[in-house]
């Protein structure tokens, strides 16, 4: 749990100057095939971002890499004394996936900048001065790319820091113009079977019915973070990454298709 004292002084000078995106593991890997990246999907998404003129920072999930191994070794978000071999395997798999993402972005004409979460987190708390550097890096033309990871907590304990949680932490501190969760579905459904899409969620129009969750509970975590981010004043978009144009449409406010949590 992130202590509230870390959020007492938002960076006013950084507000609304960048976009934060989360590439879900479901869109950048094949979750049905362990340790299989969806390179084609990653490249298409990267190519769609080439003409975005605003600074962007990206976080990606683990999919069939880190998530696959964390399940195998029974590792969770709660700090515990997990198998040290499991910690090693999970962390190494995330480095492998991150390398694939970095290479795909570079091949697509972008300038990715690897940003491991240990660069801006200590234990389960953000290093504010390090977080403050992220928009500055993005403004140079580089694209900072971080990822969910197995993290050292202290006292021989480790924990899984998810990419969704990183989105929540960074959004609360940096107050980006937009936060975008890129998944393999159109948005948040109130009824998965009938594909009933919730297009807009606000304080006046909250989720009143049980929303469909994926098997891992991944959508549940995203929704939780989206609510928190939107309460801080940032609009949060859920976009289908299989149609990359929807990402740029959300950025440019051009007929967005998906679900939006209004800030």
Task: Walk me through the topology.
Elements: E1 19-23, H1 25-28, H2 39-48, E2 56-60, H3 66-72, H4 84-107, E3 112-114, E4 121-122, E5 125-126, H5 128-138, E6 143-147, E7 149-154, E8 157-161, H6 163-174, E9 178-183, E10 188-191, E11 196-198, E12 200-201, H7 218-231, E13 235-240, H8 245-252, E14 259-261
Parallel strand pairs: 1-2, 1-9, 2-6, 3-6, 9-13, 12-14
Antiparallel strand pairs: 4-5, 7-8, 10-11, 13-14
How do you describe this structure in short?
The chain has eight helices and 14 strands. It is α/β, with parallel strands linked by helices and 263 residues long.
- CATH structural class: Alpha Beta
Uncertain stretches of 5 or more adjacent residues: 1-15, 212-216
Radius of gyration, whole Å: 17 Å
At the third CATH level, what is the topology name?
Answer: Carbamate kinase
| Order of adjacent strands in the largest pleated sheet | 3-6-2-1-9-13-14-12
Named CATH architecture: 3-Layer(aba) Sandwich
End-to-end C-alpha gap: 23 Å
Q: State the helical fraction.
A: 25-40%
Tell the overall outline.
Answer: globular
Order of helices and strands: EHHEHHEEEHEEEHEEEEHEHE
Report mean pLDDT, rounded to a whole number.
88
CATH homolog superfamily: Acetylglutamate kinase-like
């Amino acid at each position: 749990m992130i202590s509230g004292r870390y959020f007492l002084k938002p960076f006013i000078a950084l507000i609304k100057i960048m976009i934060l995106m989360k590439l879900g593991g479901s869109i950048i890997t094949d979750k049905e095939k362990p340790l299989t990246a969806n390179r084609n999907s990653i490249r298409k998404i990267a190519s769609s971002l080439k003409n975005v003129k605003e600074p962007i920072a990206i976080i990606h999930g683990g999919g069939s890499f880190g998530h696959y191994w964390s399940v195998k070794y029974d590792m969770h978000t709660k700090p515990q004394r997990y198998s040290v071999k499991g910690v090693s395997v999970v962390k190494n798999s995330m480095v492998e996936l991150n390398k694939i993402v970095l290479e795909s972005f570079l091949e697509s004409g972008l300038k990715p900048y690897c940003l491991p979460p240990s660069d801006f987190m200590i234990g389960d708390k953000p290093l504010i001065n390090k977080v403050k550097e992220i928009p500055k890096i993005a403004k140079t033309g580089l694209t900072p790319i971080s990822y969910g990871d197995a993290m050292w907590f202290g006292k021989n304990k480790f924990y899984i820091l998810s990419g969704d949680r990183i989105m929540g932490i960074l959004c609360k501190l940096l107050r980006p113009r937009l936060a975008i969760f890129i998944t393999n579905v159109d948005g948040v459904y109130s009824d998965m079977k009938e594909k009933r899409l919730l297009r807009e969620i606000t304080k006046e129009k909250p989720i009143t019915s049980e929303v469909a969750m994926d098997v891992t509970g991944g959508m549940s975590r995203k929704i939780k973070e989206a609510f928190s981010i939107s309460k801080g004043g940032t609009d949060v978009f859920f976009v289908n990454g299989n149609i990359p144009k929807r990402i740029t449409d959300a950025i440019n406010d051009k007929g967005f298709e998906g679900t939006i949590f209004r800030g």
